[in-house]
Specification:
Length: 274
Amino acid sequence: MKAKTNSWMRYALCALAAAVALALTVAACMNGQAAAASRIDETRAFVGDDGLVYGVPFEGDDGLIVMPDMTRVRATNGKYGYISVEEMHAAIVDYATTEEERLASIRNVASMRAPALAHATEEYFGAAALTSAELSSLADGLHRGGGYQNAQATYAELAAEPLAQAINQGAVNREVAIALVSEYVRTEESADIARFVDDAEGSAEASEAEAVKAYAAAIIDNRGVDPVTPNEVIVTPAIFEAVYEIAKAELAVPIPVYAADGTTVVGTCMVDRM
């Protein structure tokens, strides 16, 4: 195994190839060494001097997806190279050496996911947007939800009321607040938006976007007279993804990216553990 990197770095995740996601689906793929005797798709992978398979996933003779031992990625510094799939799996479980340690690491990471999303909420919406009690409740709810899709739905449900309160108190950035009520405007006030578009000049698409933003801005600016309600606050998939990306950075762990010789380190890749 290559020498591990112990330092924790919290910066943008490297652009992992699709191989990383596939690597975690153990039942559906085989590793490069196991496939060494099988046909290698030379347009997607090659065998290095060390006998390991380098490249991106490809289909083996038996129809299974072959996961190269060394998967091609883009490092955080922009350089391309290869990560050791073995190292990636080890990093995900904090380099556990026993089954007991591995299971303990999995439980620990699972317990950190909801708090990471709570921290990301503070960072994205503003430190004063949600109280500690609301963030704690959000983290508990997300922990019970489990899974990305469930987390997205749970987050949207739990965050609506405290975010509405925060908007009314002026604790949320105006542009972010407008984005939070825009989906409500787009769906619930569609008749008014359509009338605006009919009267406007230029492209209908641009006019609709302009009308939605203007209408949402009016709701935000009028909150002192007519407070924003939870049903007007919609955390869209795009907003949740932005928060989720911040949380991912908190839990990510670094591993080295190697040149094609499998030894020279050319950069670092952050492994997603969300």
